[in-house]
Structures are given as structure tokens and as C-alpha cells.
Amino acid sequence: MRVQLVDPSHELLDAVIQLGDRNRATLGFLAGAAFEQAAHSRTLLAATIRGKLAGYALFALPAQRIRLAHLCVDDRFKHRGIARLLVDKISELHQDRSGIGLKCRRDYGLEPMWTALGFEQTNEVDGRGADRHPLVVWWRDHHHPNLFTDLESTAQFRVAMDLNVFADLYSRDPRSGREETQGLTASWIEDMVDLLVLPTLVEEIGKLKDPAERRRQLALASNHDRLHPDRAAADVLVREMLTRGKTEFGLDLPREPNDLLDLRYVAEASVSGVGYVVSRDNFLTSSIGPLAEAVCNVRVLRPSEIVVHVDELIRAQAYQGRDLLGTSFSDGAVPAGQEERLAVFLDQPSGERKSSFHARLRDLASKPATWDRRWILDGDGRPAALYCMRQQDGQMEVSLLRTAVSHPLAGTLARQLLYLLKGMCRDQGISVLRLSDPNLSKDIRTAAAEDGFQSHQDTLVALVVDACADASSITDLAAQAGALVGFDTPELPASMPAAAAYAVERAWWPAKITDAELPSFLVPIWPLFASDLFEFSPSLLPRNDRLGISRQHVYYRAARSAGERVPARILWYASSDKNRTVQQVIACSRLDDTVVDQGRALHARFQHLGVWERRHIDKAANTEGLARALLFSDTEIFPRPISLSRLRTLADEHRHSLRLQSVSKIPPQLFSALYREGHIAR
């Protein structure tokens, strides 16, 4: 018996797809492209006996966890321990991850099997299909510090449905090709996708001739979040798409009445702040799709595209750096007399009353010596975020933290705000950040979970450990910070696996654990691109406005490997170009992922992250058109950039031979020396 990763070019892949298709009644439909993507991503395992496929496991690696989507054994080979071999192999390959999670329908009766495979039941949730079968949540722990085993993002991919997708899910009539859409209801993915209802969908359902079926489908639609876009604003976008479709895209619309409905789906999604529509309509996805993106900044996706790229799409929706960078946000104190403008921050989903909210605002405004009330306005002067904070006993308490739910960048701003607040704590020597707002939005709670906030006495607490030191020292500093709020912290072991250290460094940012197995790389970057990515002035002084720097970015380089591993840390060395000579180590980032693909494909996947144009990627590509994308986040600009001469001196002291022409791995001792020196002026 042999367990191996499936090569995308091997005939074994076809056998895996066929086995999955034969078991779609329990596994759910999964397009062949999803299996191919998993093979390319090295997340598809196969077990063979004498050359015949006996079973397979398909999984994903979101954040620092493992998500098991399919575990399937051929009926001919059951009761031979194949499922255990596959699961054990996943753990062996990714032992540094916090563990393996999965969801499985309770009515399948597989509890004894999952228990025997080392999983524990942690929760039960309702399914989201028409029948809403309960799902059991299972977890197989890898026994890393338990503070970080529950940090799985609760973020969902928000996408508006058109009628053909809704009918695929709920119509009782036979529908050709509906399996593609029903892939969105598989147990492993259904709670990751938030399928939204637009007015046009309700209007189309209302035209069904059968009264009983019409009422049934309207009732099912009410189980989904319903959007309420401004109709006049949507009308404006429809007219613009009709005009530009003809002048710029050669589309003489409408060809038929349904085309106007398609345009309304796109326009209503855009006005609602939703950047995606899902459809199986070929004309909508292929012909109207480019027009929708150009006019409304809305992408039209097929259901299979969502299934294949769901983690990437969630990340794209959470980090819309391009849109944030392209808008003039401003951060300032809230002036008097703004109560009505602040009504956009009322938390209606939790039942917060307007009178109570205004009373809180007045109470906080009456204590200016204690509470600092601030808001963020977008380029149109609209309130986009609101926060109110004070410092007390070594803590920063944030009693009010809101993003405008209707703002299209609410999720991105939530993540920016938390990073901004942690940065304020670091600058002011504060080691505890506490969110005490009882009405935190879903966006903020999701972002806080991703950033390592923990529930404690009806608040969310994060520790800010400003140190670059070994695990023992970081443990002691975290314990001291936790003691301020009666918060227990785990003891970190020496030689922590890379993924575990990565999770700790994110949760206790800006902590850097010097004796962990988290690698560090020195990455050269031209000054022009450093200016674009990090928004340097010509003197390389960082911007005063941290909101201008997206938390996640992408950098492109040649496709050949320089030994990059993820997760990792990056130190950025700004070199020289025809306009400027810098030759300094200027910043530190976390390396989240690295992807090799055609330049066009990379641009399509990561253009939401900001400043890169297609021509820049093509310039970095090799003769086959392949380039490498480095996805990185939470960049810290050094208060004191490190000169080339000092870099060479420190490298010599640590007996390291510098390579500044390409990406190179550096030893942990040199990383520590450079990081500390870059922060001497702090």
C-alpha cells in the first residue's frame, strides 16, 4: 500500500475524480477543476494498492489550519485502515499546522469513524441547504499552544445569486447542470459562502405561475440575507452599462429582456457594496462580466469558480487594498453635533436601539478628558468607521468600535482599524488592547478572531508584545501583559514549528520569536516599487496616515524558486534603480503565500491587492510567461532604515554571505540583529 501526493499530470488524478463522482451523493458535487487545483496545490493525497486507487483525501490549508473536504475510500478496499493512513499522512505533512477540521452531516452516522481517526466533536451547526441537515464539527488537534487552535476565520464569501443559481438550489423541477451550483452546499463549504438575495431575484421568483411553488421559494429566499440597494442609484449604473457596453465593449444591449435583468443584478450588487454575483448564465459570466467589472467593480463568477477558489476569494474580499489605496480616507476627532451622521453605526442586527446608541455617544462626548472619540471619513466625506478609546493601567480600552455596515469596504476597514489600534499600543508602550463595545459588528468580530483576540469577561482582548526574543522571553512578557487583565497565557516551547510561531506572532504582534522554526528571507525591491507598495516619500519616511497602507500586498518576481517557504518573515532591501539609490533595509513583513502562474492569471487573482499593473508582472515573468507572486501582510516600516554598509557589517558578524540580487534566506540571528536595529529609534 502506498500513500502519495497526486501529480496533476498523472493518470491517478482521473481515477480520483471518478471515485469522487461515484460518491457524490454523500460528498457533494465537486468539479474536476477543483481536483486539478488541489493536485497543483499539493493538497490531494491518494492511497493505492498494487497500482489501483483505494482512496483519496482532498484538503485545504486556510490560515494555519487544515480543512478536510473529502475523505473517500473505494468500497472494494474498505476496512483496511486506508482512511487512517490518509489522515495520518496529512498530519505528517503538515504537523506544524494547528490541526485538522471538518464538517460532516450527523445523519450519515459516521461518529464512530471520526472518533477512531482521532477527531473530537467540538460543535454542531445547522446546514444551509433546503433541508438544513445538522452538521457536526470535528477537530483533530496537533497539540500546539492551545491559545491559537481556535483562530479559524469565520469570514464568509458574500455573493449575490441570480435566478438560475437560486433555482438550481431550490426548484423541484429537473434542471440540467444544477450539480455545479449544488457544489456550494457541500458540508465543507456551505458555511463559508453567504448567498445573498437581491430585489431582482425576489421580483423574478414573484413571477412564478404556480402559487404554491411561488410561496415555497419566497419562503426559502427569506432564509438568506436580503439586500436593499438604492433603486435610483442602481438605475444610474444600468444606464451606464448600456452606454459603455455599446461604446467600449461592442455589446448592443439589451438583446432580450433577460439582459436587463442581468444588468440589474450587477447594479444592485454594486450599490449594496457586494463585489460578486454568481451565475451559470454563459452570456452573463463571459460577455457582461467584463463590463460589470469595468463599470460597477463587480465580478461575475460561476459556482465552480467559487468552489475552487473559495479561500482566495474570502481573502480578496477581506483585503481590498486597491480600493482602500485609491480613496482619500481621513482620520480625525469627531466634531460636536454629528449624532445624525453617526446613525450609520447603529448595530441594528443585534437589536441596538437608536435612543440607547445616541445616549452612549452623548455620555462619551461629555468626558473628553477620558475618552478620545475619532472617526474615519471616506473620500466622499461619508463616515466609514467610528472608534472611542482611553488609556488606563497599561491598557487601551476601546468602548466603541464600528464600521458602517453599508460601506463597501467595511470588512477591509475593520482589519485596518485593528492593526491601527495595535500600532497605537506599540507606539505608546501599552501591552493590552481591550474591545469592550457590546455591539461589535460581524466584520469586526471576524477580523478580531483572525488577529488573535480572545474572549475574556465580556470583552475581546489582544496582547501587544513588543519584543524580538526567544520563546521563553516572549512567554514571560505575554504573562506580564495578561496579568493586567487576569488573562492566562500559554507557555511557548523552544523550536516552535513555523505555522505555530506564525500564529503566535500574528496574535501577539509585533512579537518576533527568534528560536522558532519560522524562516526569514531578505527580499530586494526596486525603490519605485517600494514607494508604490509601502507609500514612501522620496526620503523614505513612512506616511503619517497608516490607513493608506493595506494590510496585505503582493509582490511579483521571477518564477524560479529561491527556496521560499511559507509561512515566513521578509526583510525588504530597497536597492537602486535609474531614478534613485536607496540601498537600505527598510521594512519587515509576514510572508503568507507564494504562487507561480502565468502573468495574466496572477493579475486576475491578485489585482485586488493594489498597485501592480499587468505590465509589471509581465516584466518579471520568464520566457514561458510564468512569474511568482509573494503575498505578504502587516508590513512594519523601520523607524531607522539600515544602510548597506551596516547590513554588510552585521552579516559579517553573523558569518553570513549576502546575496542582494535575488531573494535569499538569512539566519535567525541576523534577522534578529537587523530587526532590532531597525527599531532602535522607536
From TrEMBL:
Keywords: Transferase. GO terms for molecular function: acyltransferase activity, transferring groups other than amino-acyl groups. This is GNAT family N-acetyltransferase. InterPro entries: Acyl_CoA_acyltransferase, GNAT_dom. SUPFAM superfamilies: Acyl-CoA N-acyltransferases (Nat). Residues 1-143 form the N-acetyltransferase domain. The keyword Membrane does not apply. It holds the Pfam family Acetyltransf_10.
